[in-house]
Design brief:
61% helix, 351 residues, four-stranded mixed β-sheet, mainly alpha
Length: 351
């Protein structure tokens, strides 16, 4: 119990209710969350600037090598070679960020549609309607416990894994999307824990941070996408004249993809512990979110429509659970499930 209290000071013990906050405590807690989110935003922007600088250097080096290979008889480089390369990289990356951020102005609904979700239909037929009605009721209950506006409930109807995410700029446009597998496999208490986890992200300001992160990651991957378009064959199966330059951009653009994944991991990983604590606080039991994580860890991932990689940091858990090995641990957007369970229960938990 002492270990749990240190890890999650705001949450109640297993099976016990959470004490009420002191008058003014909600406002103070909100300010702390907002300050933490603001600090994380500045850290994220600093990481993005560093990644962009490294990408500019790498692109210039790769294109300089491509010039030497294709035009070995030329002494030096064309006028404004490096300046033009730098301007194009900035145009692609920053322009991609700006365009994707414009797409995201709708907030949570746009992100949910991007992931393949649809609004929950409580009036739907038979079993599906009953499960989605239960989801809508649970979202409203947890919002009441969190003292916030209920977000819209969405469903990833074709995804049979157990997972969920929250998205949106604020509580006004926030959504909580839950997979069909979670609706079918989780008990009501576990669904409360899952929704409580995502509600924690909304209340703590994580969803706004994560929405910004989607735009940044999208921009960092633009160079790789442009390179792939240059190496694509035409209708006659022939390569374009700029195929070699495209190969260089694809290779270097991989660094943008890697930088995006590192940025996702750096921003998202530690914030999952806070959301787990919120799940215990709002659902008033450890076994809700604890049961969800144990089921995720114990079930093999199933085939499902793949959401864009730029959304990887939004999920309650990665699809491969705690089985990440080697270098992939450094790119993981979530802590290992075993560590999250250990913090929840204060001991190692078998799954």
């Amino acid at each position: 119990q002492a270990h749990f209290a240190r890890c999650f000071p705001l949450a109640g013990q297993r099976g016990r209710s959470v004490p009420s906050e002191r008058p003014g405590g909600t406002e103070m807690r909100f300010r702390r969350h907002q300050e933490a989110a603001e600090n994380a935003t500045w850290g994220m922007l600093a990481g993005f600037a560093l990644a962009l600088l490294l990408l500019v250097v790498a692109v210039n080096a790769a294109l300089a090598l491509a010039v030497h290979l294709t035009l070995p008889f030329i002494d030096g480089y064309p006028p404004l070679f490096f300046e033009t390369n730098t301007a194009l990289v900035l145009l692609f990356v920053l322009g991609g960020c700006w365009i994707e951020t414009l797409r995201l102005r709708e907030g949570g609904p746009h992100v949910a549609r991007l992931a393949g979700a649809r609004p929950a239909d409580p009036a739907g037929p038979l079993q599906g309607g009953r499960l989605e009605r239960r989801l809508v009721n649970v979202v409203q209950e947890i919002a009441l416990a969190a003292r916030t506006r209920p977000p819209a409930a969405w469903v990833l109807a074709r995804d049979l894994n157990i997972n969920a995410f929250a998205a949106g700029w604020s509580a006004d446009d926030a959504v909580i999307a839950v997979t069909q597998g979670a609706l079918e496999r989780l008990t009501r208490a576990e669904l409360q824990g899952l929704v409580g986890h995502e509600m924690g992200h909304i209340v703590r300001g994580d969803t706004r941070l994560n929405t910004r992160l989607i735009g940044l990651v999208w921009g960092l991957q633009m160079v790789h996408g442009f390179g792939r378009s240059l190496v694509a064959r035409d209708e006659q199966g022939r390569f374009h004249a700029g195929a070699l330059v495209g190969c260089a951009l694809v290779a270097v653009g991989w660094l943008g993809w890697l930088a995006g994944r590192i940025l996702q991991a750096a921003v998202a990983r530690q914030r999952e512990f806070g959301a787990d604590a919120s799940a215990v606080q709002y659902a008033r039991t450890v076994d809700g979110i604890g049961g969800v994580l144990r089921k995720i860890a114990g079930l093999p991932p199933l085939d499902a429509p793949r959401a864009p990689a730029s959304l990887a940091h939004l999920w309650v858990a990665e699809s491969r659970g705690s089985g990440l090995l080697g270098w992939r641990r450094w790119l993981a957007t979530h802590p290992p499930l075993a560590e999250r369970l250990r913090r929840l229960y204060g001991r190692s938990v078998d799954v």
